[in-house]
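Final report, Chapter 2: Outcomes

The project's central promise was a pipeline that accepts a single protein chain and returns its three-dimensional structure in a standardized token representation, suitable for archiving and comparison. That pipeline is now operational. To close this chapter, we reproduce one record exactly as it appears in the project archive, with the input sequence first and the structure output second.
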Amino acid sequence: MMPQLLLTRRYDFPASHRLYNPQWSDEANKNVFGPCSHINGHGHNYALWVSITGTPHPDTGMLMDIGALDELVETWILNWVDHKHLNMDVPFLTGKIPTTEVLAQAFWQQLEPHLPSGISLSRVRLQESRNNSAEITQAAGAPAFLPE
């Protein structure tokens, strides 16, 4: 029996967002989110790592064709968020405060149902800045997600 293998791929995209809770006053938002609550938002150059796990195919030695993984990530994540305002342009983020933590969970939800049989999503890591990233893993209980 072959051991499980972890394959990780990195993707980069720029996007803007505003951290703002509409149920709070502008002052409360500024106290909690600081300059990230600016009315026009602000941007980041995000780095996204997607890790999958499974057993490599005996004929190819590959866990999954990289091109096929790239296509899934493009279709279900990047096409939606690349060069977009995350609060205004991304339907699967409607009503959510697009923190790094929320985005990592939302990206997991977008991608996981579309992986081929025998392949599992193991980790999604999103880096918002040099000093800030969020990671969600299967071991960390990834299936418990954000309310719709």
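Archive annotation: The CA atoms of residues 104 and 139 lie 15 Å apart.
This record, like all others produced under the grant, will remain available to the consortium after the project formally closes.
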